[in-house]
Design brief:
single chain, eleven-stranded antiparallel β-sheet, nine-stranded antiparallel β-sheet, disordered N terminus
Length: about 700
């Protein structure tokens, strides 16, 4: 009855009578609900249920400020309830039209002894629940510093959880699954502590399987002037607590009223695929900040990149990380033109060129340094004007690469001039990397900030905004995590923020399971520059490591990644010579990068995942299906195709004897006519995949 009364409320209703203050809000379909209560000490708690299962039990809220505690002694002043129901169109994305339908509750609170005001805004969607803190403009609080956020996520039971270790500077970690009680257990998971890696803590998104019919994921949305949130395993029951990445002096967030936190989000679905299809993270971000988005486009690119990672060529000219180089410098004019010729031949608009500028020879240790790049001066064997002019004649652009080595002191003041230089050269996209320590001081061997703290959150935002002034797109490596801000700043095309393809070139590599975990964890925040498309799975041995380097995938799984690893800018990452003469390359050339619809066919975290996507402004569909180390077989109903239309299905399948370890590069290509009434059998090899183009017959 309470749920029905809530929906019968007017679109906007304010309650100030203590007996009438609304303390809960349910989703439009009534399935999801958040409830707020004050305890006897005046501390605010919340709980969340789905289909009457309270999987999040009363969980604390509040803050500790420098010289003030905003934990206890609160009273509720009033509440407001309204319904938001609208649709909006994406500039690019997994779907063209997004529905934003939720019921919203605002609670106005006041601390009794200080009279400090805080609002809690909660939104209940059919696909999840979110809440944020708002500090209104007020006389009793102006400038303040947060030294602890008290937000908890107190789960009812020890549910199965998909997570990776938190780190103030790096998200590129292996994913594990364990009960909540074991999240962050560095002893159990035999972790060798890394700099700033935190025991008993996980990154977000962290995804929790409550039962066979309920899966949730904790993350945040609209992170633009705050510290990134990690999840601290409190080791008290099955409870996580927000743990913010600090400034180096211990401050967490520096703020002035009016001010608001990011949204704390709990995506909710009946199955893992529901999380992938959810738009709650984007819906919680402001609408597009740009009046004109005509400069934004989606596409594929190749690059002088994989050859650097597998050790064929080098980023530097003479010395790299303080050691002499015996291999050739990759980013030379001749090699750039070779890549441009290949791109032009195959209709690929961009070529990424890493290592084109001076400074690489001066790096200290591994990817560190200070004031060694100006990001303008070419190496002696690379002529940027000659290369970009050559590209213009061929209809191919250079994708700029700025490796900042996190030298923000020098990169941020130079961004305007650097981005103008890119625009003048006809460059469309800048890939910006942030390896190393932020503002590293080589003399003192110290660094000044963390990648995931408020200082860098502000910088990443400024970088994207500055790029937009010059009509540029951004691909960001070593980033802050995606929290849906691609809605507001759609020139932010992709971020890394997880172990990508490069790890297969010089480490133990990504397991066959890894690619089947990312769509249900990291990619829930936003698109990833995973760099798929490797066709030659064996990687050359290195004299500095006994490891057998290899890509633990079949070719068809690499093709399927163009659907399962969503990004509006996708790389064909392998060497051009590994594509020449290989029929599978046709799929990479044909697969679009912008979609009007996306549907998850099936999915089990860490096991398998199948998705279909409809090309934007066309009736063609594409399917990608991947598995872990186990072979799989299942049927796919083609009812997603347009009725009364015939399609030619071009099917890229693992060969019968394919296997990620013993025979990864064999595949078959077949064609058949299909309609929406047909059912296809999908057969995946161990560590394999399948990719299908459904092209409508006009």
């Amino acid at each position: 009855m309470k749920h029905l009364l809530l929906l019968l409320l007017p679109l906007f209703m304010a309650c100030s009578d203590q007996n009438n203050i609304v303390k809960e809000v349910a989703s439009p379909n009534l399935n999801n609900k958040i409830v707020f209560e004050l305890n006897d000490a005046g501390q605010l708690f919340y709980s969340i249920s789905s289909n009457n299962l309270e999987f999040l039990q009363p969980s604390a809220l509040g803050f500790e400020l420098k010289n003030k505690s905003l934990k206890n002694n609160f009273k509720m002043l009033s509440s407001e309830v309204k319904t938001n129901n609208s649709t909006w169109e994406t500039v690019w994305g997994q779907r063209k039209t997004v529905k934003d339908y939720n019921n919203q509750l605002t609670l106005h609170l006041q601390q009794k002894e200080t009279n400090i005001l805080i609002d809690i805004i909660a939104k209940s969607f059919d696909d999840g629940i979110a809440f944020r803190y708002v500090f209104p403009k007020q006389n009793n609080l102006s400038d303040f510093v947060i030294i602890d956020e008290l937000t908890e996520f107190n789960f009812k039971e020890d549910y199965k959880t998909w997570w990776n270790f938190a780190d103030y500077d790096n998200y590129e970690k292996v994913y594990y699954n364990s009960p909540i009680s074991q999240v962050g257990d560095s002893i159990k998971f035999k972790r060798r502590p890394e700099k700033e890696e935190r025991p008993n803590m996980a990154n977000t998104p962290t995804t929790i399987e409550v039962n066979d019919n309920l899966v949730v994921s904790i993350h945040e949305a609209d992170l633009t002037d705050y510290a990134g949130m990690n999840l601290l395993n409190t080791l008290n029951g099955f409870k996580f607590k927000a743990h913010l990445t600090p400034w180096l002096n211990g401050d967490l967030v520096r703020a002035s009223t009016p001010f608001q936190s990011p949204w704390r989000t709990i995506q909710i679905g009946k199955n893992p695929g529901d999380l992938v299809e959810s738009d709650i993270i984007m819906n919680l971000n402001p609408e597009c900040a740009y009046e004109d988005t005509s400069f934004i486009e989606t596409y594929k690119y190749i690059g002088i990149w994989w050859e650097l990672h597998i050790g064929k060529t080098a980023w530097a000219e003479k010395t790299q990380f303080g050691k002499p180089i015996t291999k050739p410098h990759g980013a030379n004019t001749k090699n750039a033109k070779y890549h441009i010729d290949f791109a032009a031949k195959h209709g690929i608009p961009d070529v990424l060129i890493e290592g084109w500028d001076k400074g690489w020879d001066n790096m200290e240790g591994s990817w560190t340094g200070y004031n060694i790049f100006d990001w303008k001066t070419s190496t002696d064997d690379f002529d940027i004007k000659e290369v970009t002019d050559y590209g213009k004649k061929k209809g191919v652009r250079m994708m700029m690469y700025h490796e900042t080595i996190s030298d923000i002191d020098h990169y941020e003041p130079a961004m305007d001039s650097l981005y103008k230089m890119c625009k003048d050269l006809g460059i469309k996209t800048v890939k910006v990397g942030y390896t190393g320590d932020v503002n590293y001081d080589s003399k003192k061997k110290t660094y000044k900030q963390h990648h995931h703290g408020q200082y860098m959150v502000r910088h990443y935002k400024k970088m994207v905004q500055t790029a937009a002034k010059y009509g540029l797109l951004i691909v960001n490596h070593e980033p802050i995590k995606f929290t849906g801000e691609q809605r507001t700043y759609p020139n932010l095309m992709a971020r890394e923020g997880a172990r990508g393809q490069e790890y297969n070139a010089w480490s133990e590599g990504n397991s066959p399971e890894h690619g089947v975990v990312l769509p249900f964890t990291r990619l829930l925040g936003g698109p990833m520059d995973y760099t798929p498309g490797i066709f030659k799975m064996d990687v050359p041995d290195r004299n500095w490591s006994p490891l057998d380097f290899r890509v633990k995938s079949t070719i068809c799984k690499q093709l399927a990644y163009y659907l399962t690893m969503y990004s509006p800018i996708q790389m064909a990452a392998d060497l051009p010579e590994n594509y020449e003469g290989n029929a599978a390359f046709q799929f990479i050339k044909d697969v679009p990068t912008n979609w009007s619809e996306s549907k998850v066919i099936n999915g089990k975290i860490g096991d398998y995942y199948t998705v279909v996507r409809k090309e934007r402004n066309a009736d063609n569909w594409y399917l990608g299906s991947i598995t872990d180390e186990n072979p799989r077989k299942f049927k796919v109903d083609l009812s997603f195709l347009k009725k009364n239309k015939t399609y030619i299905a071009t099917i890229y399948s693992d060969a019968k004897n394919a296997h990620w370890l013993t025979n990864p590069e064999v595949f078959t290509i077949s064609k058949r006519e299909v309609t929406s009434k047909d059912v296809l059998e999908i057969i995946l090899a161990a560590g394999g995949g399948q990719a299908i183009e459904f092209k409508v017959v006009e």
